[in-house]
Amino acid sequence: MRYTNCFIPTLKETPSDAEVVSHQLMLRAGMIRKLAAGIYNYLPLGLRSIRKVETIVREEMDRAGAIELLMPSVQPAELWQESTRWEQYGKELLRFKDRKDAEFCLGPTHEEVVTDIVRREVKSYRQMPFNLYQIQTKFRDEIRPRFGLMRGREFIMKDAYSFDVDSSASDLSYDKMYQAYRRIFQRCGLRFRAVEADTGSIGGSSSHEFMVLADSGEDAIVSCTQCEYAANVEKAEARPAPAEHAEPRPLEKVETPAKRSVEEVTAFLGIPSSALVKTLLVVADGTPVAALVRGDHDLNEIKLKHLLGCETLEMANEEMVTRVTGAPVGFAGPVGLNIKIVADLAVQGMKNFVTGANAGDLHLKNVTIGRDVTPTQYADIRNVVHGDPCPRCEAGHLELWRGIEVGHVFKLGTKYSEALRATYLDADGKEQTIFMGCYGIGISRTVAACIEQNHDADGIIFPIPIAPFHCIVSAVNTKDAEVMAACESLYRDLGAAGVEVLFDDRDERPGIKFKDADLIGIPLRLVVGSKNLADGKMELKTRRTGEVELLPLADAVEKIRSIVAEALGR
């Protein structure tokens, strides 16, 4: 592609409404333009990168045995009502009526539609297993769309759905997709982790998120330094703490005037935060429950909600705290409480700790589990912290990262097939429910996440596999016939060698060309100028490292071809 024939409207200044790096750079590099809140036009460079991701996804999905189809983005309300998600999904589901007053929605996902297809066509166990996938535009009416393609309302997504005769067979399909996802993100040139995750609104028995590591990531994740264990902080497991062997001391009341927070109480008493136990009052489906966690730990509400099996879980308000404990907020404690008490595993076996006394301006010292308070239940209900021992291996500890979710795989089980009555006849002629899996990748989001991970002060640093072009050829002086002839030869020969080339043939100053090349993130830049050309050479700059080397004109094409081939695994 010649620069003068391409549409690349770069910007010198960062738009004021662009908050994160990927949004800023995609606008400045002329990759996207905003049409409405959370809705973007994909301009040529942005679309080229998106298509690269799509190609990798298609190749790996096909390799894993999945079959591509395409389902409508407009979906009838009846299907969503059958699954009960019409009422449950919330305002993110954009609903509308046609001229006949029939209700529809713009699909944020396609579980209902694909299950409807299968229930109409699959009758026998002999027709399974199979996996159907599509790459489709989705719409989710986010209350606050932001961050460009990171959290838009309209987005491009690959979603796949597996169909199996039972749970064991479904596990095999899940593993195929898990391995395919690892290959996809490796081929995209991204640093990522596959982490255990909560199933969220999709439902199902278990799931993994694929997280691109980036300092700007919205999600906190952990991974082990020694083994492959990784999990979203919402899901990450904490290993139980060893029991204390100290002798219990007599229970003692101490005055703590106006000292409510962990920091205030521990500083006042001169103790570490790990020697205090917080009593957190929550309301589970309308019923108060006390959760005990160490002062240096935070309650994980998602873990607690799953443990209690409740529909709603929220922190108790001041009125509820006072009614249950008889004390103002900041002085609650487990001793003498007559409600269900769930204690974190790290609290189990603790002795001589400090906690609230259920009276204003008072705390208790030397509280001991089993003597002064006996929790109803012990469970892992806290967030893990950096340095925690790995729950899966003996040698490693947990490290904290920031991540951007770009893929998610779910074991759905029979959630949707039961609701929509998708069944089959087994070998004995008995009707059975189909087992399903669901597997999504945010195609457009992957490009944005790539930029969040790969950039510097000058612009984007694309990995070769998903860069809009592999190489840019820059003519220093377009009025020099020999320079232009050499550039034309390179442009032609590189293209013939399978290298995607952008030829910057603009009549602009070299500085402008070089700044634009860095901004749009083309991995390799060949600079042809009259001075080096007189010696039969040209300059090769690698965008990621900034390394510059002089290449003989005769060697340039093979050098670039080999670099690209290695990056693409050819």
TrEMBL record:
> Which InterPro entries does the UniProt entry name for this protein?
aa-tRNA-synt_IIb, aa-tRNA-synth_II, aa-tRNA-synth_II/BPL/LPL, Anticodon-bd, Anticodon-bd_dom_sf, Pro-tRNA-ligase_IIa, Pro-tRNA-synth_IIa_bac-type, Pro-tRNA-Synthase_IIa_type1
* Main location, first listed in the record: cytoplasm
Cell compartment(s), UniProt = Cytoplasm
Q: Where is this region: Disordered?
A: 238-257
Top EC class, one word: ligase
- State a single Pfam family of this protein: tRNA-synt_2b
Q: Could you tell me the EC number(s) of this protein? A: 6.1.1.15
Report domain Aminoacyl-transfer RNA synthetases class-II family profile positions. Answer: 38-463
Q: Name one GO biological process term.
A: prolyl-tRNA aminoacylation
**SUPFAM superfamilies, alphabetically?**
Class II aaRS ABD-related (SSF52954), Class II aaRS and biotin synthetases (SSF55681), YbaK/ProRS associated domain (SSF55826)
Catalytic activity, reaction form: tRNA(Pro) + L-proline + ATP = L-prolyl-tRNA(Pro) + AMP + diphosphate
Query: Per the record, GO CC terms?
Result: cytosol
The molecular function GO annotations come to: aminoacyl-tRNA deacylase activity; ATP binding; proline-tRNA ligase activity
> Where on the tree of life does the source sit, at the highest rank?
Bacteria
Record's keyword terms, sorted: Aminoacyl-tRNA synthetase, ATP-binding, Cytoplasm, Ligase, Nucleotide-binding, Protein biosynthesis
- Give the protein's biological function: Catalyzes the attachment of proline to tRNA(Pro) in a two-step reaction: proline is first activated by ATP to form Pro-AMP and then transferred to the acceptor end of tRNA(Pro). As ProRS can inadvertently accommodate and process non-cognate amino acids such as alanine and cysteine, to avoid such errors it has two additional distinct editing activities against alanine. One activity is designated as 'pretransfer' editing and involves the tRNA(Pro)-independent hydrolysis of activated Ala-AMP.
User: What PANTHER family does its record include?
Assistant: MITOCHONDRIAL RIBOSOME PROTEIN L39/PROLYL-TRNA LIGASE FAMILY MEMBER (PTHR42753), PROLINE--TRNA LIGASE (PTHR42753:SF2)
Q: What does the entry's free-text domain comment contain? A: Consists of three domains: the N-terminal catalytic domain, the editing domain and the C-terminal anticodon-binding domain.
Family membership noted in the UniProt record: Belongs to the class-II aminoacyl-tRNA synthetase family. ProS type 1 subfamily.
Q: How does it assemble?
A: Homodimer.
Q: Which NCBIfam families would you find in this protein's record? A: PRK09194.1 (NF006625), proS_fam_II (TIGR00409)
Q: Which HAMAP family match?
A: Pro_tRNA_synth_type1 (MF_01569)
Protein name, please? Answer: Proline--tRNA ligase
Organism of derivation: Geobacter soli
